[in-house]
Design a protein that fits this description.
about 775 residues; alpha+beta; 7-stranded antiparallel β-sheet; 15 helices; glycoprotein
């Protein structure tokens, strides 16, 4: 009897266990056996939305004057339960900055000791050309921003640190899945003539002249289910043009916004079931609320009761509290974090329709990207041409849809060690050994940094000025004379960079401090069978392929059993610092923009491959590497010539936040077709970046209690916040809020509210808000 009772008890326990497991599997609570701790975080890094030059196009006239949508730092941390950990941060910025990375690491060491260091923390930029500049420490990268911009720098350091803190505090048992797929219509080669100079037998191995593969990681929390995704895909952040003045994450930032909103919408509409997720473009979750049953006339009557509210004082937290995606409303579980990361995008343009001459409408010259011998008229066209905002949305949407497909079908689980290697390398004088086909070797060296004449020609994404052209391997007498006034390169330097004609000898220019970097950060982060190569530059398509292949071959040749199966090697571009471009030796000979911007001479790529093979070998053997020479900290030497905000003012009798141009009375608008615009008395956005807040919000009237619910803000692509002064040095300014009403908006009564901060003459800042009259959307 006792034995029978034990058998029955054992059977009952087994049945209960199996039922529990089955329930968890079908409800999404368990996805796989986890062997990692996983944490994700996200934080606002939107810099000054006024007066500051944008980073990327080097166009002095491209100065920030508002927000398309906000910029974020998105982080994942993966740790062995009792072992090593790695941190990867994707920032909506043109590139990572060496000085930003150094200061983030300083803060992390002060907070966590040696848990997070330059060895296991990687920071990569998406390469948007529509973010505030002035946050790099070398002269050549901050000339157009009138020197160093402390506010840009602080926004990045603070935001990156906070995103890492979030990820650290969210560390929980979880699993990671990897998936790959081809995305064919989000990038084209903008320097095909240089690509064609690569050996034909090498080109024949590849179907396309740009990389089409997206690699995606899916992060799954043991309790909460999916909590995020990070992917790598090559395309430039140049859907927004060199004349755009609104802060924007460009196509990758918009893709991230789509993916995060999709997940929020999917979980809000139904309990989670992976199979039930669709690949539809998300409608904003804020619109999933009760629709009005009133007639159109009744809605108009209701709206008429709400006239514009005059400007009034507000608190710093008022803006954050009204933010649609406020963290205050998501405290019960980790928010879903999705990052669209950059890789070897050096010669890849999102302007997929091709490059055309503005004056004739004909295709630009194939070899030099010129129109009638000049480059200024040659521009690439995005899929939404001539609307750059539409092109940004489309290329972002294409990346989002591919990421969603990979996310829903990801089944290969990452398993194995978490590890990392990092080294600083002086690329101004690196000895490189080249292996020849006959088995012999040749010793060569890299060069101190220098930029060629074709650098000034720009690209089809953003052409330069004057008479510079791509493919110029000679230069011209006039600009050579101008160059010599600044710094004349010696024969050794010119021979080292040959056939690049040197326009700016930046590596040998040190007044008032260094013009270009010499010491670069190289890093490998390993998570099981995934290897992330963090590189401080823009590798062209073929350069990236050679680096990936070399590292993969090194890993495979080790004989390590863990390397016998499928391994994934991805390049994280523009990471931990910035040193412009890296082309192949053959592409360098053509001296298009990318070759002219390959700073350390024709053997730059070979230097990278050599050093990454060393790191790969060390990683597999478990040996240490010498840290290399420490890069300089030039923060105390930085100069800034950006005019500060002295004070803000309004016309006599007006207040900050007052409506200057209101909506018309009895205004009724149609979803998907109409736009509404409201203008407010405002103040300079540099007074307060309203981090994790918003400068503008669209509010919908809740019928039950007549309260205003935020539904769209300055982190939505449909709302644009524009700021302007009547004159350059005027203390008066105004904010224009434009809302393009999406199809997904709910029928109802709406208004637009503006938040800001004004500065008094003696430096104190006070916050304000104001609201428009109500209007109807049907």
């Amino acid at each position: 009897m006792k034995e029978l009772s034990l058998v029955r008890l054992w059977s009952t326990c087994c049945l209960l266990y199996m039922s529990t497991v089955l329930f968890l599997l079908t409800s999404g609570g368990v996805y796989a056996t986890s062997e990692y701790l996983v944490g994700l975080g996200s934080y606002d890094i939107t810099g000054p939305a006024a007066d500051v030059n944008m980073m990327g196009y080097a166009n002095m006239e491209q100065v920030a004057s508002g927000i398309h949508f906000r910029l974020r730092a998105r982080t994942f941390i993966v740790s062995e339960p009792q072992g090593k950990r790695v941190v990867f941060v994707n920032i909506d910025a043109c590139m990572a900055s060496q000085i930003v990375t150094l200061k983030v690491i300083e803060r992390l060491k002060a907070r966590y000791g040696d848990l997070y260091t330059e060895n296991n923390v990687g920071i990569s930029g998406i390469h948007t050309h529509s973010g505030p500049g002035g946050y790099l420490q070398y002269v050549v990268y901050i000339v157009t921003s009138l020197g160093f911009v402390r506010q840009s720098f602080d926004a990045l350091v603070d935001g990156i640190e906070n995103s890492i803190i979030q990820a650290h505090e969210n560390l929980r048992p979880g699993s990671i899945f990897v998936n790959n797929g081809e995305l064919l219509d989000a990038g084209v080669n903008r320097s095909p003539s240089a690509y064609l100079n690569n050996p034909s037998e090498e080109r024949s191995k590849h179907k396309y002249n740009v990389d089409k593969e997206m690699t995606l990681l899916k992060f799954v929390d043991d309790q909460w289910g999916p909590v995020g995704s990070f992917n790598w895909f090559a395309t430039h952040g140049t859907s927004m043009s060199r004349t755009n003045s609104l802060i924007s994450g460009d196509n990758k930032g918009s893709a991230a916004r789509f993916m995060e909103d999709w997940f929020e919408q999917s979980t809000a509409e139904r309990s989670y079931s992976e199979e039930s997720f669709s690949d539809e473009i998300p409608r904003r979750v804020s619109s999933i609320i009760e629709n009005y049953q009133d007639s159109h006339e009744e809605l108009l009557e209701l709206a008429s009761y709400f006239e514009s509210e005059p400007g009034r004082p507000a608190t710093r937290i008022s803006s954050s509290a009204r933010r649609v995606r406020s963290a205050l409303r998501k405290a019960d579980k980790p928010g879903f974090v999705s990052a669209f990361c950059q890789t070897n995008c050096g010669d890849v343009s999102p302007n997929v329709l091709g490059a055309f001459c503005l004056d004739t409408g004909l295709l630009c010259d194939f070899n030099h990207s010129t129109c009638g011998g000049r480059n200024e008229q040659c521009y690439g066209r995005g899929p939404g041409y001539p609307d750059e905002f539409e092109s940004t949305r489309i290329i972002g949407e294409r990346q989002f849809k591919m990421a969603l497909k990979l996310f829903n079908k990801a089944s290969e689980q990452l398993q194995g060690k978490v590890d990392y290697r990092h080294v600083y390398v002086d690329f101004s004088q690196l000895n490189v050994t080249l292996l020849k086909k006959d088995g012999d070797s040749e010793a060569v060296k890299t060069c101190p940094a220098a930029m060629g004449f074709a650098f000034a020609a720009g690209t089809t994404d953003g052409p330069g000025a004057f008479d510079f052209t791509q493919g110029d391997d000679k230069g011209n007498p006039f600009w050579r004379m101008v160059r010599n006034v600044i710094k004349t390169p010696d024969k050794k330097q010119m021979d080292c960079h040959y056939p690049k004609p040197i326009l700016l000898d930046t590596g040998e220019m040190t007044k008032p401090y260094d013009w270009a970097p010499s010491i670069l950060s190289l890093q490998i982060l390993r998570i099981g069978q995934l290897f992330i190569l963090s590189v401080p530059g823009e590798f062209t398509t073929m350069a990236g392929r050679r680096l990936r292949d070399a590292v993969k071959a090194q890993l495979k040749s080790s004989g390590d059993k863990e390397m016998s199966g499928e391994i994934h090697v991805v390049i994280a571009g523009l990471a931990n610092g910035y040193s412009q471009y890296v082309t192949t030796f053959e592409e360098y000979q053509v001296q298009r923009y990318e070759g002219a911007s390959t700073l350390y001479g024709p053997h730059t790529l070979s230097g990278y491959i050599q050093e990454f093979k060393k790191l790969s070998k060390s990683l597999l053997l478990g040996t240490t590497v010498e840290p290399g020479p420490q890069p300089p900290d030039l923060l105390d030497k930085q100069l800034s010539f950006l005019t500060p905000v002295v004070m803000d003012s309004t016309p006599v009798g007006d207040s900050f936040g007052d409506v200057i141009s209101d909506v018309p009375k009895n205004l009724s608008l149609t979803r998907g077709n109409d736009q509404v615009t409201v203008v407010f008395q405002s103040a300079c956005p540099r007074n307060d970046l309203l981090t994790e807040g918003t400068f503008a919000v669209v509010e919908r009237l809740e019928q039950k209690d007549k309260s205003w619910i935020p539904v769209y803000d300055d982190d939505d692509l449909c709302l644009r916040f524009k700021w302007s002064r009547p004159k350059k040095l005027s203390s008066r300014s105004q904010a224009t809020v434009e809302w393009r009403i999406p199809e997904s908006a709910s029928r109802g009564v709406y208004r637009i509210t503006h938040f800001g901060a004004a500065k008094k003459l003696f430096g104190s800042v006070h916050h304000f808000t104001g609201s428009s009259s109500a209007f109807v959307v049907t």
